[in-house]
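Appendix B: complex inputs.
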Amino acid sequence: MSKVERKKWVYAFEDGDGRNKMLLGGKGANLCEMTRIGLNVPPGFVITTEACLAYLADSQRQLPDGVMDEVRRHMTSLEKETGKRFGGGEDPLLVSVRSGSAMSMPGMMDTILNLGLNETTLAALIRRTGNERFGYDAWRRFVQLFGKVALGVPDALFDEQFEAVKTRVGVKQDVMLGADDLRDIGERFLQVVQRHTGRPFPSDPYEQLEIAIKAVFNSWMGKRAIDYRREFKITPAMANGTAVNVVTMVFGNMGNDSATGVGFTRNPGTGENQLYGEYLTNAQGEDVVAGIRTPKPIGEMGQEMPGIYTQLVELRNRLERHYREVQDFEFTIERGTLYCLQTRNGKMNAAAMVRTSVEMHEEGLLSREEAILRVNPAHLEQMLFPRLDPKHKGHALAAGLPASPGAASGQAVFDADRAEALGKGGAKVILVREETKPEDIHGFFASQGILTSRGGKTSHAAVVARGMGKPCVAGAEGIHVDVAMRVAFVGDQVIKEGDVITIDGSNGQVFRGEVPTVEADFSPSLVKLLGWADAKSRLGVRANADTPDDAARAIRYGAKGIGLCRTERMFNAADRLPIVVDMIVADTPDERRAALDRLLPIQRADFIGIFKAMAPHPVTIRLLDPPIHEFLPTERQLEDDIARLNDLRAVSRGMEVLGEATRGGADPRLLALLHDLGDTRAVDGVLTRKEAILRKARALREVNPMLGHRGVRLGITYPEIYTMQIRAVLEAAADCVKAGIEVHPEIMVPQVCTAQELNLVREYMTVVQNQVEVTYGVKVPCKFGTMIEVVRACMRAENLAEVAEFFSFGTNDLTQATFSFSREDAENKFLPMYNERGILQDNPFEVLDVKGVGRLMALAVDWGRASRPGLKVGICGEHGGHPASIRFCDSIGLDYVSCSAPRVPIARLAAAHAAISGGGAVDKAA
Ligand code: ADP
Ligand code: MG
Ligand code: MG
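Resulting structure:
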């Protein structure tokens, strides 16, 4: 490097820029910042990350020219400032050598304390302090740390010697060792180093310093650090190289007026505005971490050292006022003087984050926008779902994918019917299946949670559970489910039906027995923060809800309407399914209408319940969507049933034959019994129906059901189905209107790709609406709109909007259609590989694909509004609850997002983030 543009490699704490974490590392930048604002930081300096990168790029592994010169100059300044001498004199200067990159990487490199000690300086230190024990203790700590960290000597070799001395002396605890014992340990440690490295322990302090600096730099490319960066996806843009901090040693172990500890400016568990932390009197920092002695809560310092405690509270206040963020700091007290050794933003759980945000705004530390932006919406998930009690000690029996957050316990049940039967009886059950199918849906309703041994995060079980806000662990491959035997095997353990298990859908763990859970926590702070968020956001937030209970829950979570009510969920309930099957099996429209007539009052009652729960907010109801054969048992199952019924019939016939053969002479009672048993009429009836269903199932079989006869296509083939549903909605609405309840039903047609389809359904609606209004004698307000979930619908948005009064993007199907990926196959087969190899950044079924699917959406919004200005547009796919996707929805001008109820608060906060950080904030409350 030429002289003119020589880089500055080293910054004194007085000179470094506290905001430049890339150059100085987080620890170094904050040490500079704290020095600048006048906090008592021991003097020191930072060697930059640039020096680290230059060193690592050098094939000889030499420090770049000038680094050691600058280090020497700064050491000289430290000597002046402290009045101590490095490597000699009456009062030796000792330093710590600490790593620190832009991102905190715990445990990346251990800190070396007490560097600068050798035979001479040790003697001086002992003379100076008059404390032999202290001196030898500092020495043995230094030899061990330096040996381990800088010279690569395994810790075990030191521990062996340490234990040997303790055994010889006959003590259990380090504190009981005397000065002589510690000196002995120091000597043994020197021999360990000599033996292991083949060289004597370096005694020249500058040599020690240079070796230590190189060791810190090398640690950046050590396995631990590389693994950590990979695991937490830390890219070079986030942190590149580590800085080295050289800090004058201060001692918390100089007597009972000395101490060391860690503090949080507020309680990180609860967020309470109170100094929080722990300390140890007469100890060095590492003792707190090592857990050798039990530290005391910081409050006790108020009595033990009141003067220092006042200083500590003052430090806390200055840190918070300056950083305007909860700080996590390290301090040491040397003979009554308080030093701050480190500070960084405190990590907190979601509840504490929310509470501190609200309180820091109310204390005037943060603006309302800052308070909102400070909380990461996704982090709220922690508070909104029941979770396992953090204090539990259970060991997981098996693990799968965290498919739907929350925790639940219940009896294991292996089929949906049993789940429903037990659930209705009030039992808590967990539905355990290999995988789930739409026909298991009633089992979902009755269960606390779902566990499957197959399938990914977008398997049927996962998607439906998330939609319902129930916990789900999917793809727990270690579990083998035997439905017929009603057991599951996990290794050598057996789970029988009725055995209690606990699942944690937030991390995928499965436990035997009941692990206590803590309930979702809707704290007053959260309510307040979300209220502020609502006032700032432009996007509305609705919930996906299918039942009156869901609707009531959605309201509690702050939804302003239902964005998607799936009517097929109602069809699946046990009291309706047989009627639905009748409807499907019907051979003529009249037969079908007869079945539908029985369904009508049931659906109407559902809608009344939902409207009441949601009033006065809008409710978007999607007409029947899935292919109807999904309501029938599988062909396989029907064939099995029929075979078994035929066997039964043959046995029955046998009884009759037997009866005839023994006629005359036999006991008349036996004869009567045989006659009854021989009556095959009951079996025949069931058999006939099963055969009819099987015929229908075969007739309805499709090669590709998801692209087949479903959605509006069904509605047009069987107009009586949609007509019945529309009638149920409108009669329910009329009922509410008469009762003085404000209703805003919105009828939504699924799978539309042309305006002709919409026109047809719109006609059904006009006819029914007129009839209902005449019959009930009231006006029934109702909007008519379409789901946008196929590519052609996006392309024809302008025409669709001539008929539709609103659009709602069904981004689950739209994503499948845009990629031509079938979701289940993609998830289970190739998506993980695509993500790993960077072919796709994210799973497009979780994170909206802004570049492709998003582009289509933007076009559809623009074209739709070109023909109908003010066209209302929302999204009701799973993406509606995902913060980054919500930001995108805001940017293309959607009116609302809709997601499962427990995600509503996440969406509300994300909507506010989008409004605040994406352009000027609007304060609707103002
Ligand atoms: P980590 O990043 O692992 O916390 P640190 O560099 O902060 O590592 O140091 C480890 C321990 O040593 C901490 O308790 C810290 O307070 C203490 N420590 C570091 N430097 C000094 C020093 N100059 N004087 C006294 N204690 C120190
Ligand atoms: Mg630290
Ligand atoms: Mg769809």
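Residues 42, 96, 98, 111, 113, 247-250, 285-286, 330, 332, 341-342 surround adenosine-5'-diphosphate (ligand 1) (CB under 6 Å).
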